Amino acid sequence: MPNFKNSLMRRVSVSTFILGALVGLQSPAFAGAGHSGxxxxxxSEIGAPGEISDVRRxxxxxxxxxxxxxxxxxxxxxxxxxxxxxxxxxxxxxxxIGTAAMHAGHQxxxxxxxxxxxxxxxxxxxDMMEMDMGNGMTMKxxxxxxxxxxxxxxxxxxxxxxxxxxxxxxxxxPGHYESGMVGKVRLQ
Length: 188
Description:
- This protein has 3 helices and 12 strands.
- It has one domain (about 50-185): Sandwich (Immunoglobulin-like), CATH 2.60.40.420.
- A hairpin with a 2-residue loop joins strand 7 (about 120) and strand 8 (about 125).
- Helix 1 (about 1-25) crosses helix 3.
- It has a 5-stranded mixed β-sheet with strand order 1-10-5-2-3.
- It has about 190 residues and is α+β, with helices and mostly antiparallel strands.
- It has helices spanning about 1-25, 45, 100-115, and strands spanning about 50, 55-65, 65-70, 70-75, 80-85, 95-100, 120, 125, 145-150, 155-160, 165-170, 180-185.
- The chain starts with a helix and ends with a strand.
- This is Copper-binding protein.
- Keywords: Copper, Metal-binding, Signal.
């Protein structure tokens, strides 16, 4: 069985890479979606990092291959939420709060991470995350509205939502968003 699993992972990795590359060729680039200034460059548009002392509610989200256990989350405008994110899949996944345009731009950067070897289907090469990917941009993934997790890992995101916005949470690993790993954030 281990050979089957490794073979399957390689095929899924290559398929995901190719799908992501094809979609990336059709996607326009959007300013402010990248790592150079952080995933949350449009902070006033998407909210801001929250303080643990302001959290009144915790939402648990499980990531699998390639879906979240929730398709939608409902929050109040101005609410600070603690998200406990767990990756129960066999592949690397991301939880990222942003707009559709931010995700489209970020997907191109995630493709670059795979091309440079910083990201593999089931592994994050942390030593490569500081590497200059061009224009002084790195792939550290330390922005407060996002976590990138290897299989079996978990992390928290504490986020204060804006009063109004059209937001979604998504995994921008190549091919994952396109396969449906995205959910809506409904502000009340």
